[in-house]
Amino acid sequence: MQTNLADFIKNSPEGQETDAILRSCVHCGFCLATCPTYQLLGDELDSPRGRIYLMKQMLEGQPVTEKTQLHLDRCLTCRACETTCPSGVQYGRLVDISRGIVEKQVKRKTSVTIKRTLLRKILPNTRVFAALFKLGQTARPFLPGRLKKSVPPKGKPAEKWPATRHKRKMLVLDGCVQPVLAPNINAASARVLDRLGISLIKAAQAGCCGAIAYHLNDHEEGLDAMRHNIDAWWPVIEQEEVEAIVITASGCGVTVKEYGHLLRHDPKYAEKAASVSKLACDISEILDAEFKRLQQLLSQPRSDLNRKTLSFHSPCTLQHGLQLRGKAEKILIAAGFELTVVQNAHLCCGSAGTYSILQPKLSQQLLENKVSALEAGAPDQIATANIGCLMHLQSGTALSVRHWIELLDERLSCQE
Ligand code: SF4
Ligand code: SF4
């Protein structure tokens, strides 16, 4: 695609990045077939190719309107289009940069601005979120049906975290909402890794990966959260010689893997950010690398021989963002679970960070489609790999939805 970027961006790093991305698009339209919003709305401007045109116009200096903002807001940033694109168009980066520019040029309604600000301030702040969640839990039994559904039930409390006893160590990303909603996920990861001879350790003071603010278009606030984590992790990385930074929410994993790129022009943080991104691994990657040892553990006789049927929802951030497909599924099969075939497994469940709150109608439609696809194989339960998807799916099904690492941990504990 030919481009002629406007002066305001042409010579900046963002300008060079977006120019290269725009030029890589050949308008073939293959991406339309796998775009969830195009499937639902049938409007070219709600497809990757249509949005690329809108962003190109904006970057070439044409006036930006609420219409541009609306079509970019409706994008889930699921990046299914990136997986489909034969030209390797980095749509996710293009939309992130473009949204940041649109946010500065188009004023939102006051009510929408307030909503977005509250999300940006509350969700990444674990203490505030925990207090509000507690309040919601107390009020939940008295709430009417629809409102009750919006307050998630309390997840399984965290079971024992093993003591640090191994030479091999890995650091875990605590995150922001996950420790409140499902504290057992990281504890289960620590127990699984402990059985494999790896101690999972935490760094005090680390928090939200930065994705919430960044994807709500406050890039500086997002980058500050990233710098904060680097500061919290760095002494532990150096002193403990950690092999990896383990991430159990694929949404956060995508972001931490991008620290190096996003902070590449920050003289103080560029090098450390690149090292952090190199160390960042989704828990499925770690266990895939330890698969032989894991198989040995799983081959020991177990007391619970029931074969459970599972439907696995691979989050967009896992399959499209991180391009990790089949690893968690392979481990679950090795652990004795029977996995159902899920139709349209490439499509988003509608959670997409804060999308379910900001675009409730589209999000709900995607949720209904996803739950039907997951329930079609009559599973005993549903498994996934990202806290946002987990909570969103749980709001649409009577089946239990769990993080797959908790299921693996329970399976391993049957053998001890
Ligand atoms: S598939 Fe890729 S190259 Fe083709 S229109 Fe979509 S983004 Fe552009
Ligand atoms: S990121 Fe997802 S919703 Fe957005 S254009 Fe690509 S496929 Fe469509």
Question: Please, how many domains?
Answer: 4
Major beta sheet, specifics? Answer: 4 strands, parallel
Low-confidence stretches: none
| CATH-defined fold name of the largest domain | Glutathione S-transferase Yfyf (Class Pi), Chain A, domain 2
Which structural class fits the helix and strand makeup?
Answer: alpha/beta
Bound molecules: iron/sulfur cluster
Describe this structure in words.
By secondary structure, the protein is an alpha/beta fold. It has 4 domains: 7-105, Alpha-helical ferredoxin (Fumarate Reductase Iron-sulfur Protein, Chain B, domain 2, Orthogonal Bundle), CATH 1.10.1060; 110-150, no CATH class; 168-287, Glutathione S-transferase Yfyf (Class Pi), Chain A, domain 2, CATH 1.20.1050; 301-413, 3-Layer(aba) Sandwich (Rossmann fold), CATH 3.40.50. The chain has helices spanning 7-10, 13-24, 36-41, 48-59, 66-73, 80-84, 91-105, 110-122, 126-139, 145-150, 178-181, 184-195, 211-215, 219-240, 250-262, 270-279, 283-289, 291-299, 316-321, 327-334, 355-358, 360-375, 387-394, 404-413, and strands spanning 168-172, 198-201, 245-247, 280-282, 309-312, 338-339, 381-384, 401-403. The strands form 2 sheets. It has a 4-stranded parallel beta sheet. A 4-stranded parallel beta sheet has the order 6-5-7-8, sandwiched between helices. Helix 5 packs antiparallel against helix 7 (91-105) and helix 15 (250-262) packs antiparallel against helix 16 (270-279). The radius of gyration is 21 Å and the shape is globular. The N and C termini lie far apart (59 Å). The model has no long low-confidence stretch (mean pLDDT 95). One iron/sulfur cluster is lined by residues 25-31, 48-49, 81, 84-85, 87, 89.
